[in-house]
Design a protein that fits this description.
Elements lengths: L3 E4 L3 H12 L6 E4 L15 H4 L4 H4 L4 H6 L2 E4 L4 E5 L4 E4 L4 E3 L2 E4 L3 E3 L15 E2 L4 H8 L7 E5 L3 H12 L3 E5 L12 H13 L3 E3 L2 E8 L6 E8 L2 E6 L2 E4 L3 E3 L2 H5 L8 E2 L11 E3 L4 E5 L4 E3 L4 H15 L11 E6 L2 E7 L6 E7 L4 E8 L2 E8 L2 H13 L5 H4 L12
Parallel strand pairs: 1-2, 1-7, 2-3, 7-19, 9-16, 10-11, 10-16, 11-12, 18-20
Antiparallel strand pairs: 4-5, 5-6, 8-17, 13-14, 14-15, 20-21, 22-23, 23-26, 24-25, 25-26
Helix pairs in contact: 1-9
The structure holds flavin-adenine dinucleotide.
């Protein structure tokens, strides 16, 4: 019976291990993770967990007893150092080796680091990023009312932390190099909505503004200020705390070290298989073909991790079920749910419904009169309909789409 070894006890790895047992896999399942925690949800890290509203145990995807019940060998605090493909063995950090019949890489990614003058010091006590429980545990005690927090990067994680911090009474400034927030993932209408949402609560923004260097204290252990250039004009911003939220670097080193193809993620096919038939890759670390996009893509979202784990479980059970899901994602800020489906890159027209002032707002991105993506804020029924519109690829009547009196469901083919 096949021994399946999963590297990375995160969202995707945890889903896969349980999914394999549910589908009837009889052989050993070993789930290796370098963090001290069993698989957990990361979304609350920058939301309720940072705010102190979600307990640690509520982050865990399944209680530890479930792994025992499913006979999943969960080995935490265990880092995998290398893959020996010819021997089908892994080298672990403690020097031991572990054999596999099938190997699944579910190694996720790590926060992208800024490389700026002043950052040569390895650890700065008030400079943070957000990827893991331990990141939040380190920063939470310092999230005290009155502290000045400078967030570098106006993406989802930076904005979620801004929302929590301003509600905790911190003075928050968000620095974004692009001229608008979330510019890589949304249209200007949504960027403006989000900016106003935060601005009303007291968050300040510096757009078209690049961090150029850190000013450290005399002991060179803390950041005191950040040198920036706004539209090219130099400025210095004071900071008690600095959060860097500039994206993710996929953890692909194990794969590349073993000679597998890596191109913004570990290259896999629509069944989650690498070029080595014994090795699969799933979740944030994998780059896969997208039927929806007509190209290759690496996605960073919980729905993708879950779907990719489902596809890999099917592959490992000898079924061929290609990945066919449409990408979607959500974010929570100030109790408002933002939901996005599809990818808006390359859209020709944006049609909106609802009113930004009323905090209910949907933006539909069209190409060739087809809805290729949508951002929905506070209108959950629109989101369900938008998902159908995006997956049906049907052409829509643009004037009817823009008329909130016309039910969206009637537009779907
Ligand atoms: P991960 O969950 O990162 O798990 C990978 C695991 O592998 C990690 O524990 C890592 O330490 C471990 N690992 C790596 N290398 C090794 C090794 N060599 N040996 C052993 N273990 C290793 N998505 C949404 O859809 N909605 C949201 O609102 C949302 N909010 C988010 C907020 C934050 C703060 C973060 C960080 C992410 C958020 N995401 C959100 C993204 C989502 O959490 C990720 O897409 C998802 O966790 C990816 O799952 P994964 O299993 O691929 O990777």
């Amino acid at each position: 019976e096949e021994r399946i070894v999963i590297v990375g006890a995160g969202q995707a790895g945890g889903e896969l291990a349980a999914g394999l047992r549910k589908q009837g896999h009889q052989g050993r399942i070993v789930l290796l993770g370098d963090e001290p925690h069993p698989p957990y949800q990361r979304p609350p890290l920058s939301k309720g967990f940072l705010q102190g509203k979600v307990a640690l145990s509520d982050l865990y995807l399944k209680p530890l007893s479930t792994y025992e019940r499913f006979d999943i060998e969960l080995r935490l605090g265990t880092r995998v150092e290398a893959i020996d493909r010819s021997a089908r063995e892994l080298s672990l950090q403690d020097g031991s080796r572990l054999g596999y019949d099938k190997l699944v890489l579910a190694t996720g990614g790590r926060a992208r680091r800024l490389s700026l003058p002043g950052m040569e010091t390895a650890e700065l006590e008030n400079l943070f990023s957000v990827r893991s429980i331990s990141d939040i545990e380190t920063m939470r005690a310092k999230f005290v009312a009155g502290n000045r927090l400078l967030i570098i990067g106006g993406g989802y994680i930076g904005l979620e932390v801004a929302a929590v911090a301003v509600q905790l009474g911190l003075q928050v400034t968000v620095l974004e190099a692009a001229p608008r927030l979330l510019s890589r993932v949304t249209g200007p209408e949504v960027s403006t909505f989000i900016e106003e949402l935060h601005h009303e609560r007291g968050v300040e923004f510096r757009l078209s503004c690049e961090a150029r260097g850190l000013e450290l204290d005399e002991a060179r252990q803390k950041v005191r200020g950040v040198h920036v250039a706004r539209h090219g004009v130099p400025e210095r911003l004071d900071a008690d705390l600095v959060l860097v939220g500039i994206g993710l670097v996929p953890n692909t080193e194990l794969a590349s070290g073993a000679g597998l193809a890596v191109d913004d993620g570990i290259v896999v096919d629509e069944y989650a298989c690498s070029a080595d038939p014994a090795i699969l890759a799933i979740g944030d670390c994998a780059n896969q073909p997208s039927a929806y996009m007509g190209g290759r893509i690496r996605l960073e979202s919980v729905p993708n991790a879950i779907e990719h784990a489902r596809v890999a479980a099917a592959t490992l059970m000898g079924k061929r079920e290609p990945y066919a899901a449409i990408p979607w994602f959500w974010s929570d800020q100030y109790g408002l749910k933002l939901q996005m489906v599809g990818l808006s890159a390359g859209y020709e027209q944006c049609i909106t419904r609802g009113s930004a002032g009323g905090k209910e707002f949907s933006a539909f991105y069209l190409k060739d009169k087809r809805v290729i993506a949508a951002d929905v804020i506070g209108r959950p029924a629109d989101f369900m309909a938008a998902k159908r519109l995006v997956s049906s690829r049907a052409q829509v009547e643009v004037t009817r789409l823009g008329d909130a009196a016309v039910p969206l469901a009637s537009l779907a083919a």
